[in-house]
């Protein structure tokens, strides 16, 4: 395994550095916004525009890389992304913060598309699964480390923003010094969202629901934890508990979904996520730090695993050559949900309190469970021969899916293709 990963070590190292910094920044921003007196709705909007920038970055990056190449594009994205944390520290203007979050989302979409296309260039059908698994481990480990770095300094000061900027700049070093051959320019894949809906309504709507419900958690949960009585150490533990819950549950839930109609698992996971969100509401008003931690862990177990099952269900209805187009379409729908979610969830906070964001997301999860239950009764399940194997999907606030590295896709599948027109019975 070490010999297999040696050619991509520098890229994985850059990924880890980037995610530590951006994981820290994602939690630091709502905490600092609360210290600076931003309204909760304003914090929600700031969280939403990050995903707007991310969506634009996904669309623009292939053109940037085609023009400048991978290393120079990566350097440009790193340079711009490292500026944003410093401007957050220098200004307390919500409008400026919103612009910086758009810039950060745009840059990180580009950074990760460059890394993933490069990793894919170094992989084959035989090694892509190992690359993917290592990539998932790096994502989860680095994001967890980023949460604990919140304790390194006062979030009301300059130091933590400087650390985020430093880490983003440092990520450029392993990429700039890599001896790996630069891959071919990133190809744009034609994506037809309506065709994907026809392929699997549950899979496509599920991706939208995950964006609608998970983005408010990443954006507003640190403020919820703070108002629940947790100090900085407690907030980092709370966020890490959710991440660890999702990491632990990915494989058992995924393997269970391989044994039955995935839509039944989606119903159970959606209800579990709603119960986790209701537990967050109850724990937030109870004053028990332990209860808040356990509720965060419970949400992570279900809320942060739903996307992987939805992706697997959608890919059950496609063919290997359509996995990249399917993943790209789900990413777009996820991003649209993420743009809407934080703003909508934060609207009622001034009246009902910050825990009300989880009442909103719990309602969404329950409605999705009901819709999925309806689809189970109206469309038959696929047989075992028609299904693909479950693959765990990273669930960070940075990006939900490394499209290029999906081990279900063959080498031929990574060429630009139009989405498959496979007619599936179970949708």
UniProtKB/TrEMBL annotation:
Signal peptide: none annotated. Residues 199-427 form the Major facilitator superfamily (MFS) profile domain. InterPro entries: MFS (IPR011701), MFS_dom (IPR020846), MFS_trans_sf (IPR036259), MFS_YcaD-like (IPR047200). The chain crosses the membrane at residues 7-31, 37-59, 71-90, 96-119, 131-150, 156-181, 193-212, 232-253, 265-283, 289-310, 322-341, 347-368. GO terms for molecular function: transmembrane transporter activity. It holds the Pfam family MFS_1. One of its GO terms (cellular component) is plasma membrane. Keywords: Membrane, Transmembrane, Transmembrane helix. The keyword Transmembrane helix applies. Residues 401-427 are annotated as: Disordered. This is Major facilitator superfamily MFS_1. It comes from Parvibaculum lavamentivorans (strain DS-1 / DSM 13023 / NCIMB 13966).
């Amino acid at each position: 395994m070490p010999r297999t990963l040696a050619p991509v070590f520098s890229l994985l190292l850059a990924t880890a550095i980037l995610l530590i910094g951006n994981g820290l920044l994602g939690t630091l921003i709502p905490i600092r916004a609360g210290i600076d007196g931003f309204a909760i709705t304003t914090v929600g909007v700031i969280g939403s525009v990050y995903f707007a920038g991310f969506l634009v970055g996904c669309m623009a990056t292939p053109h940037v890389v085609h023009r400048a190449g991978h290393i120079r594009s990566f350097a440009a994205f790193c340079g711009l992304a490292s500026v944003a944390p410093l401007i957050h520290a220098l200004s307390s203007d919500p409008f400026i913060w919103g612009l910086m979050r758009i810039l950060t989302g745009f840059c990180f979409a580009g950074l990760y598309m460059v890394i993933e296309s490069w990793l894919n260039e170094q992989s084959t059908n035989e090694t892509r699964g190992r690359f993917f698994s290592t990539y998932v481990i790096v994502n989860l480990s680095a994001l967890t480390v980023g949460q604990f770095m919140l304790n390194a300094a006062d979030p009301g000061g300059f130091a933590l923003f400087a650390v985020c900027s430093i880490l983003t700049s440092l990520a450029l070093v392993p990429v700039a010094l890599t001896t790996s051959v630069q891959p071919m320019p990133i190809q744009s894949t034609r994506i037809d969202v309506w065709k994907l809906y026809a392929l699997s309504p549950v899979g496509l709507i599920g991706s939208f629901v995950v964006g609608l419900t998970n983005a408010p958690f990443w954006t507003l949960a640190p403020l919820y934890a703070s108002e629940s009585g947790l100090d900085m150490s407690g907030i980092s533990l709370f966020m890490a508990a959710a991440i660890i819950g999702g990491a632990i549950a990915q494989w058992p839930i995924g393997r269970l979904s391989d044994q039955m109609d995935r839509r039944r698992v989606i119903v159970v996971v959606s209800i579990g996520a709603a119960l986790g969100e209701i537990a967050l509401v109850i724990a937030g008003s109870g004053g028990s730090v332990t209860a808040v931690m356990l509720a965060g862990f419970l949400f992570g177990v279900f809320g942060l695993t739903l996307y992987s099952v939805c992706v697997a269900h959608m890919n059950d209805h496609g063919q290997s050559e359509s996995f990249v187009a399917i993943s790209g379409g789900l990413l777009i729908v996820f991003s649209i949900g993420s743009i809407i979610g934080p703003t909508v969830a934060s609207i009622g906070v001034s009246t009902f309190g910050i825990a009300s964001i989880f009442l909103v997301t719990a309602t969404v999860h329950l409605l999705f469970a009901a819709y999925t239950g309806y689809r189970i009764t109206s469309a038959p399940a696929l047989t075992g021969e028609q299904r693909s194997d479950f693959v765990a999907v990273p669930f960070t606030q940075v990006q939900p899916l490394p499209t290029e590295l999906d081990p279900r896709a063959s080498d031929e599948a990574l060429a630009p293709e139009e989405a498959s027109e496979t007619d599936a019975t179970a949708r």
